[in-house]
Amino acid sequence: MDGEQQLNTWEGFVDWRNRPAAKGRHGGMLAASFVLVVEVLENLAYLANASNLVLYLSKFMHFSPSSSANIVTNFMGTAFLLALLGGFLSDAFFSTYLIYLISASIELVGLLILAIQAHLPSLKPPTCELGNVKNPCMETDGGKAGMLFAGLYLVALGVGGIKGSLPPHGAEQFDENTPKGRKQRSSFFNYYVFSLSCGALIAVTFVVWIEDNKGWQWGFGISTASILISIPIFLLGSATYRTKIPTGSPITTIIKVVVAAIFNTCKLRNPSNAVMSMTTSPMSSTEINKKQDSQSKEIAPREAPTEGLKFLNNAVIDNPFYSALECTVNEVEEVKIVLRILPIFACTIMLNCCLAQLSTFSVQQAATMNTKLGSLKVPPASLPTFPVLFIMILAPTYNHIIIPFARRVTKTEMGITHLQRIGTGLFLSIVAMAVAALVEIKRKGVAAESGLINSSEPLGITFLWVALQYLFLGSADLFTLAGLMEFFFTEAPTSMRSMSTALSWVSLAMGYYLSSVLVSVVNRITSSFGHHPWLFGNNLNHYHLERFYWLMCGLSGLNLLHYLLWASRYKYRPTSPDT
Length: 579
Hints:
By secondary structure, this protein is mainly α. The protein contains 21 helices and five strands. Helix 2 (about 30-50) runs antiparallel to helix 7. It is globular and about 80 Å long. Residues about 275-300 have low confidence and may be disordered.
């Protein structure tokens, strides 16, 4: 009876009531579809504010363009960095199911705080006119600034928890032991990016228009309603979910293996310790019988560690000096996997540094240009509409046409490997930065010819020029994000999958932080030579943004070469046998 029950349940998974998850009832595409719908609403709530936040900070909170850009990149970077915390808690102590519900509630509170501040004039600095000496603009400070940052970083904490739990929750609904399950999981990641884009499309069109024309309190209100609605929709799928049982802290395993390897290496270098470790201490007959008993139960000899990263093999010895540092071969191999994927993770940070420009300088560029399409005035923050629409077309095309064709040509299950997808995205980011530099040169040329360098009037050049860099960076994001998330989830040990998948968002965080650091470093270096800093002041026409974009282009090229070095050496984990 017990054997029959095991055959009909998913090993290592439970349902929302903590009972064994049943095959045929829990998991599959139906369960994952709830996750995809929830992600539309969650990303709508997040991006509705993040995409336009730089203008809210500069126009209503009176921060300078560079300060506004840094606040936005730090906010978005923190949100994505906290995905690692969400992934860690999902793997170690709670589950992806619980972490999502907790995180969504935290984000809801943060959005309520921001909506209240945007609604009440007494919680914002007084209105002013830029350049008016009699009524100068005063930057937000004190309690008002405290309320602003409290709301922003509560949202960041909630977003981080959701990003760290929702994608792995959807991905773990599929059976990885069958080709069908693995293909469905790959489709899920493609449609996860599609869902991100659906939410983004509503955010950067409808909600941004509401913010610019009806007021920011309405924009924050829509975001609050969106995240509130997502919670009951997620709960509706509870009966279909299968949830992985937390297996303890993966960080503890990593630390234990590394410390054991270092400790054993140092100890074994001492000849006396080496001899002691190889000899057997005297044992009583009872102990000998126990040892023989345990040996007789072994079906096969212990598996030897693999040759790669040999240093970690020292963590496995027959008689460890301390029982707390006793490591199994499986634990060592899991740590090796994590260490092998870290260089791939590091190579994607530069791409996300380029993506950070879409939320900062690119929006400010478009704000100085002619944003009319016929009689319709398009808000600058709606520029991401172009890459979002492209992703919404490309994601299904990639999943239903490109991948099946590639599978037939290559006669492999994957068709296009994860690392090939990531490499394509890195190349497109180089093209995007070159295009961005050329567009900025053209924009400043028009400003100079029109005599509007020192004016805030719109330039006689359409904002659609800026849409070009959005198009290339949006394509790069599609190839890299979906490939990276699937790569981390597939390659990571089962006990570390949520945390490893969260590395995709951590890469985004590090990219945003790197963008802030680059802006500060560039300003410091350029000002030290007695020149005006490249990226400083309230007038974008005085910036040397084109030089900054060329710098980003060069750094992205070097990063691609670095990536190719590591990708060419990487060996994928073997898949489970077809059943």
